[in-house]
Amino acid sequence: MTSLFGKQWTREEIQLYVPDLSQLAPIRRSTLREGRAEGIDTVEIATGSGFQFTVLPGRGMDISHASFRGIPLCWRTYAGDVAAPYYEAPAFGWNRSAFGGLMSTGGLSAMGSPSTDNGAELGIHGRIGNIPATNVWADSGWDGDRYRMWVRGKIAEAEALGGNQVLTREISTELGSSRFTIRDTVENRTHARAEHMMLYHFNIGFPLLSSQSRLLVDSEKVLPRDTDSRAGLGSWDRFDPPQAGRPHQLFYHKLRPDADGRAHVVLAGMPERPEGPLAVYLSYTHDTLPWFVNWKCMSAGDYVTGIEPANAWVEGRATERAAGRLRFLEPWETVHYEVEFGVLSGAAAINEFAEAHQLPRYDLALLEA
C-alpha cells in the first residue's frame, strides 16, 4: 500500500484518478546553465509527500538541494553549484567547488584532511564528488502497490597505470515517502591492493539547525578532535547560535549498532513549528561505516553541522594509515554501503523512532536539565 495524503492507497485506486504518476511524483532531468554551474546534469525527484531532493549525476551523483514541505534541509556554500571541470585537487582546492548541499561523498582512495601519503599529494575529501557519472538511469515504476523512483549510475575514480575504483550508486525512494536510500557498491577493478576511504558528508543547516536542535545518538564513546573540540565536549549534542570567528569543533563517535547491524542518528529541532518539531535521521550499515563524525561549524554566515558516516577518521590518509584505521580493497574486491536518510515530522514520530533505536528522546526540558 502507498501512504499518501493521509490515506492508504492501492495501485488500482491511484490509477483510477491519475493517468501519469508524474502528476504526483515527478522525476525531472535537466542541465544547469550560467556561470560555473554550466553543464551540470541534475535529476529532481519529488515523492508527493512534500519531500523533494536533487541528485547531480554531473557531480558524482551527490545530492544538492533537499526540502520537506517547503523547509530547506541542507546547507549551501558561497561557491554554489560548480561543474566538475572547475575542480582544484591540491590541498584545500576542493572547497572552491564544494556546494555543500544535502550530501557530498568523500573518497574513494582518499578523504578527509589533505595529506602526503607514500609520496602522493592528496587534497581534502578526494576526487569522487567531482567526477561525472556514466550509465545514468532515472526512472520509476510499480512494484506491487508501491510506486518506486530511482536514479542509478557509475562513477569511476580511474587513472592510467594506476587505480580504478568504480562506485555503482542507486538512490531510490517511493511515492508518498519522506526518505530515500543510497545503495553503493565500490569495486577495486585492478590487480593491485588499493587504499579505500569513504565518507557520507550530510550537511544540515538553518532552519532545522539552531540552538534548539539536538543530536540524538547511542554512542559508546565520544572523542573530540582537538583543543577547541575538547572545550565543547560537555555539550557535544547541542548547538550554539552563530558567532563570528567561532572555531570549528569535530567529534568522533563509536555508535552502538542494533540487532540488524545498523547505526542510527537523529538531528531534531524547530520545536516552535505549528506541526511540532522536525528531524532528519540516518540509518546505515555499521560494519562498513564503523565511525560517525559530527562536524560543528557555528560560525556566522557558515552555520552548519555535518552528520557523517565514515569508514575512517577524517585526519587524512597518511594519518589513518599510521593509526591503523585505513581500509583496503584487494584486487577485484567489492564493498557495499547502505545509507537511509529520512524526515520525521512531529514529536510523536521523532520519539517513536528514537525509542525504537535506543536513542535519547527529543525533549528540550529534559535535554536542558
Describe this structure as you would to a colleague.
With 369 residues, this protein is mainly beta. It is built from five helices and 26 strands. The chain has helices spanning 11-17, 227-231, 317-323, 347-356, 364-367, and strands spanning 2-4, 7-9, 27-31, 41-46, 51-56, 62-68, 71-72, 75-76, 100-101, 103-108, 115-117, 120-122, 134-143, 146-158, 164-174, 179-188, 194-205, 214-217, 219-224, 249-255, 262-269, 278-285, 291-299, 302-310, 327-329, 334-345. It has an eight-stranded antiparallel sheet with strand order 13-14-15-16-26-22-21-18. Strands 10, 17, 19, 20, 23, 24 and 25 form a seven-stranded antiparallel sheet that branches. A five-stranded antiparallel sheet has the order 3-4-5-6-7, with no helix packed on it. The longest helix has 10 residues, at 347-356. The mean pLDDT is 96.
